[in-house]
Write a structure and sequence with these properties.
Elements: E1 45-46, E2 51-54, H1 60-67, H2 70-73, H3 81-89, E3 95-101, E4 104-114, E5 121-128, H4 137-152, E6 158-160, H5 167-176, E7 179-189, E8 195-203
Parallel strand pairs: 5-6
Antiparallel strand pairs: 1-2, 2-3, 3-4, 4-5, 6-8, 7-8
Helix pairs in contact: 1-3, 4-5
Length: 211
């Protein structure tokens, strides 16, 4: 999956196997023998405004339409319907949710996992219809997924790696609590064929802002 406004289906870096949980978030301790096993069908998740539901085959056309918009295609190039089906809906290395507001599909958020118990973490990707930018919808979706990953799946660290030039997305992630780790130089090839920097951000449970 290409790096979109914020994306890391998988990303590099060692992580501690211990972390605290802030009041109200709760803690899920997964036995080591369970870590890395396939999870059950993901549930629908509700945020302050958004509903995240597992992506379905019927969503392919709508998602491809959003991805074709110039504001999104700049960060997610060449994502036609076939590629959406192959790399999002039928992906085996990520779990995807459509983002719904009042029953309307306005984007997608997904996560992938590093399952080695000594380096375990989750990475996320998101894109959002431009008409819904600037309303807190993306932050609500990211925060809702982060809570699920921390509380229900037992993760202690989440990463995201937007293009370093995508300042709007970076500000949104920082509102959720993500912190800048560093610039990854010449990290991804853009639609123009040249290499662009990415920015790695990460989030621990105690960093997650309320919302």
């Amino acid at each position: 999956m290409p790096s979109g406004p914020g994306s890391t289906a998988t990303a590099c870096g060692p992580a501690s196997s211990e972390a605290g949980h802030p009041p109200g978030l709760g803690a899920t301790v997964w036995p080591e023998e369970v870590i890395g096993l396939p999870h059950a069908e993901p549930p629908s998740l509700r945020g302050r405004v958004v509903r995240l539901r597992p992506v379905a085959a019927a969503d392919a056309v709508r998602l491809a339409q959003i991805l074709a918009m110039p504001e999104i295609a700049r960060w997610w190039p060449s994502m036609d319907v076939d590629r959406v089906r192959r790399e999002v809906i039928d992906a085996e290395d990520a779990v995807a949710f459509v983002i719904e507001v009042d029953g309307q599909v306005v984007g997608l958020v997904q996560y992938g996992e590093e399952t080695d118990p000594d380096y375990r973490y989750a990475g996320i990707d998101i894109f959002l219809h431009p008409a819904w930018h600037g309303r807190g919808i993306g932050a609500d979706a990211v925060r809702t997924l982060a809570r699920h990953l921390f509380q229900n799946l037992g993760h202690h660290r989440i990463v995201i790696d937007p293009a370093a030039a995508n300042e709007r997305a970076i500000r949104s992630y920082e509102r959720v609590g993500f912190r800048r780790v560093g610039v990854m130089r010449a990290y991804e090839r853009g639609a123009d064929g040249t290499w662009h920097d990415g920015l790695l951000l990460d989030l621990l449970p105690e960093d997650l802002t309320p919302g």
